[in-house]
Amino acid sequence: MSEIDSALVVFVLLLAVTGIGVWVRPLLPEEHKAHETVQLIQLVIGMLVTFAALVLGLMTASAKSSFDTSSNDLRTYAADLIEFDTTLREYGTDTGPARQLLRQYTAAAIASTWPAETPPTGDYPKDIGSPDNSQKLESVRLGDTLTAVGQELRTLRTRDPLQQRALDDALKQYRRVVDARWKLIEEAHSSISRPFLTTLTFWLGVIFLSFGLIAPRNALALVTISLGAVSIASAIYVIVDLDTPFTGPIVISSSPMRDALDHLRR
């Protein structure tokens, strides 16, 4: 379920349970509308509101922290690509094919991971990413291209100790790039537990059902409840969107990878 779908489901559900509360209220016996009963409902609502607000706050902080971690890891990944290419350049002209593959990989990764942005210029397979852009950096063809870089390095034959040290450094940096790529792939997947999100939605539904039971039947009360439902749905939207850093309107900036590609093309 996408970020917008999750927010819409929550919004519609909250309005629906509020409407149920408004509809049920006139049908209740008079003793259920006594002042003591209303006070009890308000106390329970206060408890649930506090608990739900705490959980939403923690989820927002966790999603933002996860988003920032992925953003920092992407910058580190871009720096690793630059350092790797620099070592290949220091080795000599024999690393030309490996460097060309690395440039193609970087350009294709940008094009497939940020399909809504302007793709990089240059000669690289435009369809190297996932066909539906659902896998982003996890595209098999992108992985094969990066694997081909390592295969090119292992075919090199050094001519002096200086080249041997450069090749050893390049192989270590290649392994670091591969590890960083898989770290980003794992971080791109949502970490929010769907059963937990469903349970939170249930709590919010109970709260809004109680609102419908005790709210006066006038336009201002209904508008206020509707605005509350919009606010809650928007909070869910932001949480789910931040938890998927490479999809949705809120995504990690492609600038580090584009800067890395500029360095690789020098």
From TrEMBL:
Keywords assigned by UniProt, alphabetized: Membrane, Transmembrane, Transmembrane helix
Membrane-spanning residues: 7-28, 40-61, 196-214, 220-240
Pfam families: Bestrophin-like
Keyword presence, Manganese: no
The keyword Ubl conjugation appears for this protein: no
UniProt protein name: DUF4239 domain-containing protein
